[in-house]
Here is the input.
Amino acid sequence: MRFAYTRPDGGLSIINAVPKERVELVIGELTDDEYRAHIIDRSIPPDATDVHELPDDWQPPDIDRTFRNAWRKSGLSFSVEMAHAREIHRDKMRRARKPMLNALDVQFMRAMEQGQATKTIVDQKQALRDVTADPAIEAAQTPDDLRKVWPAALDQAPAKAG
Here is the structure.
């Protein structure tokens, strides 16, 4: 038994129920209706909306799992909400750039201490800050388009200040 429902934050949750036989080992024999009611009561929050029991032969939708937290549903139809997928992608970029910015901060401080030029470091840091403002992110119309947006600045190691 599986259920899909919409959480208050708009996200989609899919639950797979514990098999009836295992539940019965703990709480005793149940009719099918009692088992279903038990699963709903224990597994689906009261503030859930658009709750649907999924058919036994249901398979996860053939949509990109990269943006799983952007999945939305209407009845038994699933899709990716692109606005949310874009934010997920920006967060991934932020996580990728964080250690690079930290390394550049160290290089900047060392260059300052040694009286060296810092312009190259400042430019690299700005390029990293700008990755989430790439217009290609907003232009992406599908998860595949969005996944292809990955600025070269996130693939490069910071250059040494000189």
